[in-house]
Amino acid sequence: MTSRRDFLQTASALAAAGFVPRALSAHPLAEAPGGARGGASTVRARPCVVSSANGLRGVKVAYDRIIAGEDPLDAIIAGVNIQELDPDDQSVGLGGLPNANGIVQLDASCMHGPTRRAGAVACLEDIATPSLVAKAVMDYTDHVLLAGPDARRFALELGFTPQNLLTEKSRQDWLRWRARLNPRDMYLDYDGDIAIKFHTGTINMNAVTAAGDVASVTTTSGMAWKVPGRVGDSPIVGAGQYCDNTVGAAGSTGRGEANIKACGAFLAVEFMRQGVAPEEALLRVMQRVIAMTEDRLLGENGRPRFDLQFYALSKDGRFAGATAYEGASFAVCDEQGARLEKCAYLFKASERPR
Ligand code: GLY
After folding, report:
1. Of 89, 92, 85, the residue nearest 108 (C-alpha)
2. What Rg do the C-alpha atoms of the chain give, in angstroms?
3. By alpha-carbon position, which residue is closest to atom 5 of ligand 1?
4. From ligand 1's centre to the CA of 125, what distance in Å?
5. What is the mean pLDDT of residues 309-317?
6. Using an 8 Å Cβ cutoff, are 118 and 109 in contact?
7. Mutation test residue for ligand 1: of 99, 199, 234, the one with most atoms within 8 Å of CB
8. What DSSP letter does each residue of 179-217 carry, written as one string?
């Protein structure tokens, strides 16, 4: 794992050598030039499955399916389906936190390395498994992204079953959020801690098979209480997830608005294409995100006020997770079994702006 100290030392050395681009040098950690630094990304045997921490159950399911010979995209979609169908996971699928109107709107996208195909859905309502609808867009249409009521209609035509995705728990959370929204409205204020509840949550999963074929998928209910119609990074190919069968795969969870502007998943794969190890690639993406962040979302120390995590898996089986602040973890499953590992980071948790 790369500590902030290591990273600062490297960045300082590069800056002293004149390598730091001028436009980025005002930021606390400016982008370093290409070239593998090695990092701590661990070389493991293939196959391997990597996901956000909430995919701990899913990476095992996906790994076992890949071992059994299943296509890597089908395997990881089965992995994320576990969270999508879990009513207690309020960040994806059934039970996801709703938009400002109390309606659950889901986003998802996927890519299949061997065929170089992609599919996505945005603002999908009433279907618990948007990852499968995204794959259906990939499999059955000449398009990449379907959105809104027509995406729902497409899913129904293919036989997906509509259901009410707003669980009682999420509905109660939404009612409490709404009650606290405006002290002068006609709802009595709720004094609990609902406003502190996470605002983004997502599952990203990436896989490489024994033969070196890669796939990626990301699915989410998006930012809680979002403006109806808001689309995050998850259904944006190149932002929420991306894979290239000659290089590897990457994806993200967290504040989508920050990631979209950096095309984070694509950028991570491009860094890996240049020979950068997965961990270093993700830290560079995180730096790029910060460089692209408007001042209102940065503290006085230049550190981001939001959470955003990235995950990457190279074709040769190296993997990493990375984020801005120390303390996050990600899920992995390989021949050593399913487990959580620590994300690399740029800053100590104490540096997070209040
Ligand atoms: N990363 C999920 C979202 O922002 O919607």
Report:
1. 92
2. 20
3. 222
4. 16
5. 97
6. yes
7. 234
8. HTT-TTSSSPP--SSGGGS-S--EEEEEEE-TT--EEEE
Domain ranges in the chain?
Answer: 38-166+199-351
Q: Smallest Cα–Cα separation from 251: which of 61, 73, 1?
A: 73
Q: What is the pTM of this model?
A: 0.86
CATH second-level architecture of 38-166+199-351? 4-Layer Sandwich (3.60)
Q: Given pLDDT bands bounded at 50, 70 and 90, which one contains residue 24?
A: very low
Catalytic, out of 2, 200, 202, 293: 202
Q: Residue 252 and residue 235: Cα distance in Å, rounded?
A: 11
The type of residue at 298 is L
**Kind and range of the H or E element at 339?**
strand 337-342
Q: Is 337 left (phi over 0), alpha (psi -120 to 50) or beta?
A: left
- Spatial distance between the Cα atoms of 341 and 139, rounded to a whole number of angstroms: 33
197 falls in which pLDDT band (50, 70, 90)?
A: low
pLDDT value of position 180 = 80
Write out the E strands in 209-244: 214-220, 241-244
